[in-house]
Amino acid sequence: MTLKHTLYLIVLLLTIPMVSQEKSPSETFWATLQSHCGNAYEGTLALPEEDEAFGGKRLVMHLRACSENEIKIPFYVGDDKSRTWILTMNEGILTLKHDHRHEDGTEDDITLYGGTASNVGKSDFQFFPADAYTQKMLPAAATNVWWITIDETTFTYNLKRLGTDRVFKVVMDLTKSIEAPEAPWGWKK
To answer: In terms of residue numbers, what domain contains 174?
Structure first.
């Protein structure tokens, strides 16, 4: 190879944009969630063991609506179809919001609270401290932290209100997809 050809090759290589094949932990987490899109799963309440609102009721999540930057996961508690977890991806950082609806589809007064991850997290664990919107809407929730874990067999949704005994954990079984439930309240289809 001549010097001219070598220099040409070096210049060519330097002008080709380098694309990293490695995903960030949040992108891997997102891809794992996306792989379940369209599926519904049943789960159990792990904490608190005795809970009036959730205890003894059928718990189902449905990864119902997925796009490149948003995943909507209705969460059904018995016949209550008021809750949807909304995860969004923006520049590699995830946000979790809680959409609450009445049976007629109108927004609850307490809706769209949540938080944004402070970093890319881990590929199987994302952490969401309460944001300013949440703190303003629900001052008692200013110390809320939510986290979601996912692996080959389970998805967990967790809540801890720091400085209190408030804790909540639901464990969903990803090994068995179930029939998709009806649309949650406020959804057209």
So the answer is: 23-178
- Asked if 41 and 152 touch (Cβ cutoff 8 Å), the reply is no
Q: What is the pTM of this model?
A: 0.88
Q: Is residue 159 part of a domain?
A: yes
Tell me the Ramachandran region of residue 92: left when phi exceeds 0, alpha when psi lies from -120 to 50, beta otherwise: left
Q: Return d(Cα 148, Cα 29) in angstroms, integer.
A: 10
Residue 187 lies in a domain: no
- Cβ-in-10-Å burial (0-12, 13-18, 19+) of 60 comes to buried
CATH number at residue 78: 2.40.128
Contact assessment for residue 146 and residue 128, using Cβ atoms and an 8 Å cutoff = yes
Q: What tens digit of pLDDT does each residue of 70-80 get?
A: 999 999 999 99
Number of domains in the chain: 1
